[in-house]
Amino acid sequence: MFGQPATHLLWHHFKKMNDIPRASKKEAAIRAYYREYAKTHGLGFEEDAIGNVLITKPATKGYENAPKIVIQGHMDMVCQKRPTSAHNFDTDPIELIEEDGWIRANDTTLGADNGIGVSAGMAILEDESAVHGPMQILITVDEEAGMGGVRNLELKGLDADYLLNLDSMKFGKCCVGCAGGVDILMNRELADYYRSDVQGLFYEVTISGLQGGHSGVEIHKGLGSANQLLAEFLTEFSHEYALRLVSFKGGELRNAITRDATAVIAITANHKEAFLAAVEAWKVSLKERLVKVDEGVTIEAHETAMSDTLDTEMTMTLLDFLTLLPHGPIRQSALLPVVETSCNIGVIELDKENGLHVGLLARSLNTNGLDVIKRRAKSLAYLADVVIEFDGEYPAWEPNLDSKPLQVLQETYRENFNDELQIQVIHAGLETGLIGEQYPHLQMVSFGPDIVGAHSPDEKVDIESVDKFYALLKALLANLK
Q1: How far is the CA of 187 from the CAs of 235, 327, 331, 356, 385, in angstroms?
Q2: Where would a tag sit more exposed on the chain, N or C end, judged by fewer CB atoms within 10 A?
Q3: By C-alpha distance, which of 166, 199, 257, 189 is closest to 476?
């Protein structure tokens, strides 16, 4: 088992979670596990219609009159893997690997986001050394794919004064606010614009080797988006030479920065040398553009079979449209050291049969920022005659610096680590915003261990920080009385 003996229960529960497939919207097996766990251990259990789980444990002796506390996290995980991985997220367990003081997975996402936080709450349920007031563990579904769980939260037994969200990713920092967000979906039918009489050469063009990552907490790093870069490359070439688009595919999740993207195109035979030269030039310019950020980036082009193509006019329209999609930081906060507004080009899919589908995720610390992105996206969609809709909007979590759990957490951290806890607002979506709308009386804080590379196969969690995080959680529960 990893880490100090005090955290063996936590790691035990994390291993159990990762033995059970738990992709967003596919949480039935892990929900059944928690249902049986509560029954076996004689704990209170409630499950609502969408699948959110609430496990209840009485106060330990002497804490019967302490404030009621709910520990909260989400059971689902982002499922991403390297192109060479044969892992099946619907059936295969996540393989844990210990390396240089970190835990990672074998060429897949690890699910430490938010499996470590949930496992900490589960460990508290059976940790005989933990003392606490009346306690509940709220484990939600579908957080990563639109926060569907908390949007449909209907747990009659949820009754607490304080909420401890354990979905943060930097030990020594406490989150007291987060961005809101909205999904932007764009679609257009294209079958009528495809032609079968195209001559010339057909190429499959791929941009790959990018790290990818979390489209919120890592959006400020300047990581490359394969969707954005491939659209730019094709658009630049199409402005100089005849080019027709067959297909474009990049990304699977709107909240992950895209690691690779592939397009199939047709060019005239006499432009072959110019096209291959452009590919080689972009190999160099991409590395310069992403120096010290995403230096593994590359672009490759290989001849492929002929097929139907979009006509030239529609190709130009859609490539310009894709190139102009908003991506990356849009505005830095004037009040806090954090990105205020951003957008991520999460998914692009284009082919004859299915037409065009684009999925963006916009985030902002305020509704004005989301409105700016929505207006720009709507105008762009109108120019390209693309149908646009907005879905899954969720509010920001506004900071409350006077909350009791925050004050006690600061004091507890100071006592245990002889240092000051850093307070932050993050550019990512936590469930606290939506929970706070439904339960406005709840005073909330969020904290966690060191997790890097979330939403990508580079995801890993620092073992030592998990030890400290669990110790802090236990000390906080003891002090909230």
Answers
A1: 20, 18, 27, 5, 9
A2: N
A3: 166
Count Cβ atoms within 10 A of the Cβ of residue 472 and give its class: 0-12 exposed, 13-18 middle, 19 or more buried. Answer: buried
Handedness of CA 305, 309, 312, 316 (dihedral sign): negative
Task: Find out whether 455 and 109 touch, Cβ atoms under 8 Å.
Answer: yes
What pLDDT is recorded for position 101? Answer: 97
Q: Is the model's pTM score more than 0.85?
A: no
Asked whether the beta carbons of 184 and 375 are under 8 A apart, the reply is no
DSSP 294: -
The residue among 282, 277, 275, 268 whose CA lies nearest residue 207 is: 282
* Tens-place pLDDT, residues 262-274: 999 999 999 999 9
CATH fold, domain 5-178+396-479, is Aminopeptidase (3.40.630)
As given in the structure block, the two tokens for residue 197 are 């009489």
Pairing of strands 194-195, 201-208: unpaired
* pLDDT greater than 80 at residue 1: no
Which residue, 364, 365, 359, 334, is CA-closest to 344? 359
Query: Rounded distance, CA 348 to CA 250, Å?
Result: 5
Tokens of 219: 């959006």
pLDDT at 146: 83
Residue 129 has what DSSP assignment?
T
User: Distance between CA 157 and CA 192 in Å, rounded?
Assistant: 54
Q: Catalytic: 76?
A: yes
Q: What is the mean pLDDT of the chain?
A: 96
Q: Tell me the one-letter amino acid at 347.
A: V
Domain boundaries, the chain: 5-178+396-479, 182-394
Catalytic residue, from 27, 47, 76, 127: name it. Answer: 76
Scanning the structure block, which residue is given the tokens 């506390």? 69
Report how far residue 318's alpha carbon sits from residue 314's, in angstroms, rounded to the nearest whole number.
6
The class that CATH gives domain 182-394 is alpha beta
Query: What is the rounded distance in angstroms from the CA atom of residue 260 to the CA atom of residue 250?
Result: 6
Average pLDDT of span 217-224? 94
| Confidence label for 293 from pLDDT (cuts 50, 70 and 90) | very high
* Residue 143 known to be catalytic: yes
How far apart are the C-alpha atoms of 104 and 69, rounded to whole Å? 31
Alpha-carbon distance of 10 to 6, in angstroms, equals: 8
DSSP class per residue in 42-107: T-EEEE-TT--EEEEEPPPTT-TTSPPEEEEEE--B---B-TT----TTTPPPPEEEETTEEEESS
